Amino acid sequence: MFKKILIANRGEIALRVIRTCREMGIKTVAVYSTADKDSLHVRFADEAVCIGKPSGADSYLNIPNIMAAAEITNADAVHPGYGFLAENAKFSQICADYGIKFIGPTPSMINSMGDKVTAKETMIKAGVPVVPGGHGLLENVEQAKSIAKEIGYPVILKATAGGGGKGMRLVWEEGQMENAYNTAKIEAAGSFKNDGIYLEKYVEEPHHIEIQIAGDQYGNISHLSERDCSIQRRHQKLVEESPSPFMTPDLRQRMGDAAKKAAQAINYESVGTIEFLVDKHRDFYFMEMNTRIQVEHCVTEEVTNFDLIKEQILIAAGRHISGKDYEPKMHAIECRINAEDPYNDFRPSPGKITTLHTPGGHGVRVDSHVYAGYVIPPYYDSMIGKLITVAQTREEAINTMYRALSEYVIEGVKTTIPFHLQLMQNDDFRNGHFTTKFLEGFKLK
Predict the structure, then answer these.
(1) I need a surface site. Which of 197, 270, 281, 328 has the fewest CB within 10 A?
(2) What is the pLDDT of residues 119-145, one digit of tens each?
(3) Which pTM does this prediction carry?
(4) Which residues are the active-site residues?
(5) CATH of residue 39
């Protein structure tokens, strides 16, 4: 087992990893930017090293500084969390070159799933359902029109190196294609320094459902059921839950088997997530694989009574997993608490938290790194915490969530709590009648 793990991340996920390491008797090293010197992950780690100025490029994306911190503290493993360098194959390789275990997949695994066109081709060979569309990158707008005519409109253009909705354009008819194609390429180049674009059939009335998987170094793969991530705004998840209200036992079996096939296709090691689009007929299509722990891993932990961070560390240390699959025994919901103003188009709201009261009680979990007096910096993602509730039924989990949100007091900055409170009272949401388009018609009162 590792003696000391450096956490190459910040905020709530860094604190989450520190907690599991402490329970396992493993020392921890926090790295931090000058903007994060007062963050809880810095206070709670056994050691802490400043790695640069506030911007991500100067700190949490600065590989030489992170590796220097690992060397001077004698860390024998690095946990990348999510975001930043979590899916960076170069970072994974550098760790290997210096004899430091990267707690995650190998560089080749990251590369095989990091490029969406390559990932799609891999899934086709593995027999995993994929959304109909052209194979490979588009060479020009005429090719895009030709493929769209063959598979039928509507279609969607996507950046091959994309994420978060960047470089993505929906095209309903041929007359829209040229402008959409050019705009998507420009946006992709600006966001990812890669203007590669591919085209797929647009799945109407889609649900975004993902399967949590784990694989060891010996070829054993298991899945830990699904999470429904359909409540999104501009392709950014706001609420996640497990099990999905759209799920059936047959669909769970088929999607679980497909997710395991996907992981087996690249001999996957570590925990990860296979994301699918599921249409109104419950036909599902591979969307992408996240080769890291995810923000919403907490809901899976709550319904399966399973510590996914601990599993990640054990797998990296060479542990065999059973290959057993898990079904949800409870119902859990997660609301992302962001420092954003929901009444002003969710504009980021950095600043000082003057008052903070977190909810408690049976079935309530809060994962957060903030406290009264904490200053939310403007340089990073606006998420400041996750509120998770768990109960025997979905209705009970929603009721507990509404109660917990009502107790959650954050003053000094705007947050998404008012949005979540209204959502928990929405009849369509409560009845499970929603798709990824649900928030397009949602009006905040």
Answers:
(1) 281
(2) 988 999 999 999 888 778 999 999 999
(3) 0.89
(4) 292
(5) 3.40.50.20
